[in-house]
Each structure stands twice: as C-alpha cells, then as structure tokens.
Amino acid sequence: MIRIEQTGLRATVQDRGRFGHLRLGIPPSGPADPGAFAAAQALVGNDGAAAAIEVVGGPFAFRCEDRRIVAVTGRDVALRGRDVVAGWTAAFARPGETLTVVCGERSRFAYVAVSGGVTTEAILGSRATYLPAGLGRPLRAGDDLPLGNARVDAERAGRSAVSPDYDTGQIRAITGPHAQRFTDEAQSLFFSAEFQVEPASDRMGTRLTGPRIDARGGEILTMGVVAGAVQVPSGGAPIVLLAEHQATGGYPVVAVVISADLGLVAQRLPGERLRFTRVDRDLAVEALRDARAELEAIA
Q1: 278, pLDDT greater than 90
Q2: How many domains in the chain?
C-alpha cells in the first residue's frame, strides 16, 4: 500500500472513467487530462484500466510500504524523493520512502501512478471519484491506499515519455453537430478568435470569454453530450465540456475538441488564452492513433 502524508489542494483516486451510466445522470469522470493519466500508467507498467491519483495543487506526498515504480505526469510537475526526478519519468521507490509531487506555478492537474495500481473499492465498475454523487471522496493525510501486485523491474526507472506542449494555445477541433445553427461568420469567428479561460472552470468544463458567438434559433432539444463538446449558451460564451460533463445539454454545440487535445484544454489556467483550429475527422482519428502508438512505445 501507500500512505498519504500530504494532499495538496485536492487529491482523488481516478481510473479511466465510469462509462455506461449517463442514463442515470452519472458522467464518466476519470482524469481531466486523459493523455497524462495514460502516460503515467504506461511508465510504471500498469494497464490502461488501473487506477491512479489526480492531484490539484501540491505538494502531494505519500510513503511507499514496499518497492514500487512510480511516475508523475501533467503540466509543470516533478517528483522529489532521494533526488528530484523530472515529470514524465519513471522512478524506483524503496520501502518506507516518502515521495513528494512538486507542482509548479503552471500546474493544474497532475497524475501519480504506482506500479500495481490503486485498488480501492470499485463502484459501478469503476474506481473513479465523482464527488457530486458521493462516489468516493477526496484523499486525506493518513489514508492508506491498497495496491495491486506488480512486477517491480528496477530497469524501468529512468524510462521517460515526452510531455505535450501544454503552453501552446492552439486546440484542434472538428465542426460540431449543430453547425447549421451558426452562420458562416459565427463559425469563422469561433475558429479564428482568441478566448480566455475563466476562473469558474473546473472538471465539468472549461469556460471561455472572448467575442460573442451567436447561435440561431435559441436552445435545442436536450441531447446527450460528450467530453470535448463546445457548447454555446445564450450569452455566446463557449464552454468546453470535460470529464465530469453533464449527461445531457440543451445548448448548441459549435465544435468538438479532438480527443488528443482534450488535456491541453483541461490544463489551461484561468487567464490563459487559446484558439481553436478546425480539422477534419480523419486528422482527429490519426492524432488519436498516434497518441496510442506513443503509449505502446512507452509500455
């Protein structure tokens, strides 16, 4: 197991998500930055279904009770033990060693993976924490988290992955399903203007301010939504839905951020700016395949 010694602002157990329950009003949850989460798991040798820890605001510290391979990924992160290990790099943890996740000024979400994976109780087929529904709770100092069995290969220590360019403000997106509700001018404005991230952004969605994007015909009939959908409420300020998005929405969707870039949106800090670049479905699929190929290479 590992024992939690410091939690930072908030730390929760997450796996890749709780799928198949939107009809009950329960979103997938899981990591806000799926790419960073998956990379952390690959670095320590876990499969994609294993659970890890999402950290918001450090320092986050934990003690390993036995030998493990650990890694931290995310934006502007590092791991401090006997030495400081750069983010996106696997490290060997000795029994009884305390490790601290250091979150820099540009950090928003960090992911701590431990070989064997966190094996807390699964609810509705997932260990992902979803606080609004009481599925799990924030971690507290003194918590003991059980781990699965893992083959600890010390040679894995030092293996690294390439972090995405979190400082880029260019986000790729495909045209949304309600394009007919936006004039050519409104769509052109959306895909050329600069938007700023609002402080009210959270795991449910990234709220943006910028030029007003007007839709014709008002709200739509309520329909299912997905992570990455860019809804435009009546005020014209777009919202990019994230891991804890609602089950349905009545606002028209002007675009959908491609899966490979979803973490880039989630990691943007309040006040930072971004722009959307229009791409087609083929490029979106190719980008996702490339991301999966990189994970296989790490593992």
Answers
A1: yes
A2: 2
Q: Is residue 165 situated within a structural domain?
A: no
Q: Is the pLDDT of residue 261 over 80?
A: yes
| Under 8 Å between Cβ of 293 and 286 | no
Residue 126 and residue 15 share a domain = yes
Percent of the chain with pLDDT over 90: 85
Q: Which domain holds residue 95?
A: 2-156
Per-residue model confidence as pLDDT tens digits over 190-242? 999 999 999 999 999 999 999 999 998 766 778 889 999 999 998 999 999 99
CB 254 within 8 A of CB 173: no
Taking the CB of residue 283, how many other CB atoms lie within 10 A of it? 15
Tell me, what CATH number does 187's domain have? 2.40.100.10
For 51, which DSSP code?
Answer: B
Same structural domain for residues 137 and 13? Answer: yes
Torsion angle in degrees (nearest 10) through CA of 114, 116, 117, 119: -130
